[in-house]
């Protein structure tokens, strides 16, 4: 008697779908379980980790944790590398080497390499794949392989409120002021003043803020419409679930009031 191919095909498709759902559910469980928080630090023993801070799983390379201090309510994305010291298992003394303030967001795949002190101020946002390092290779001796020459180290300081774009590189000795914007792919060294925008490799200041004249050169896009006072987080979430047609109808209603 001939087999019904449609029945077997449907059964195979159902099995594939069930297997896929099981894999996704299992991976989601692994991600939740492997995340690091102050209450569930796992194998990591940071010098400090603030309330509400979470390191997503899987983490990148992390060593020198006792000399790393993370503030409260930070978000550290997947595959983010955080290191203190040139290599694991060093005694770096009584003071922290890597300090990360409150409310900092480190995007997926970013690296913060603190062979000497690196400080990241409160409320800094890093895009994915940002690279911050306090160490650079030296090449003084033309006869010795560069990787075997002793590196140069300089502290790095990133002021509060900065936005570091995707793929930016912050080099040893960089000192960023408050509310600095670093464009994607920029390579930053030296001092950057408060309220500046830098871009390029090497990065240069392309826009600054003046209290009397505002941004120079002027911004090319209008300022975003601020959220009205009194709007609750629940209302914002509900608004995000509206369809485009429902939003258009609401706009018509507002326009006719």
TrEMBL record:
Gene3D superfamilies: Hexapeptide repeat proteins. The keyword Repeat applies. One of its GO terms (cellular component) is cytosol. Keywords: Repeat, Transferase. It holds the Pfam family Hexapep. InterPro entries: Hexapep, Hexapep_transf_CS, Hexapeptide_acetyltransf, Trimer_LpxA-like_sf. GO terms for molecular function: O-acyltransferase activity. Signal peptide: none annotated. Belongs to the transferase hexapeptide repeat family. This is Acyltransferase. It comes from Streptomyces aurantiacus JA 4570. The lineage of its organism: Bacteria, Bacillati, Actinomycetota, Actinomycetes, Kitasatosporales.
């Amino acid at each position: 008697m001939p087999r019904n191919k449609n029945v077997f095909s449907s059964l195979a498709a159902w099995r594939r779908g069930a297997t896929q759902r099981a894999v996704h559910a299992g991976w989601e469980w692994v991600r939740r379980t492997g995340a690091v928080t102050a209450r569930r630090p796992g194998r990591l023993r940071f010098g400090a980790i603030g309330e509400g801070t979470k390191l997503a799983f899987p983490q990148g390379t992390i060593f020198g944790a006792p000399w790393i201090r993370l503030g409260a309510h930070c978000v550290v994305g997947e595959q983010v590398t955080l290191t203190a010291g040139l290599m694991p298992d060093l005694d770096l003394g009584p003071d922290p080497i890597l300090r990360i303030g409150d409310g900092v967001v480190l995007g997926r795949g970013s690296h913060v390499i603190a062979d000497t002190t690196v400080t990241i101020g409160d409320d800094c946002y890093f895009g994915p794949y940002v690279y911050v390092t306090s160490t650079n290779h030296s090449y003084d001796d033309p006869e010795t392989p560069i990787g075997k020459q002793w590196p140069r180290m300089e502290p790095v300081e990133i002021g509060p409120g900065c936005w570091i774009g995707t793929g930016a590189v912050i080099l040893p000795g960089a000192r960023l002021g408050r509310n600095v914007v670093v464009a994607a792919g920029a390579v930053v060294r030296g001092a950057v003043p408060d309220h500046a925008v830098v871009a390029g490799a090497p990065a240069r200041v392309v826009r600054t803020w003046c209290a009397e004249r505002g941004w120079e050169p002027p911004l090319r896009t209008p300022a975003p419409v601020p959220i009205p006072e009194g709007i609750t987080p629940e209302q914002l979430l509900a608004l995000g679930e509206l369809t485009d047609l429902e939003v258009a109808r609401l706009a018509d209603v507002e326009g006719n009031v």
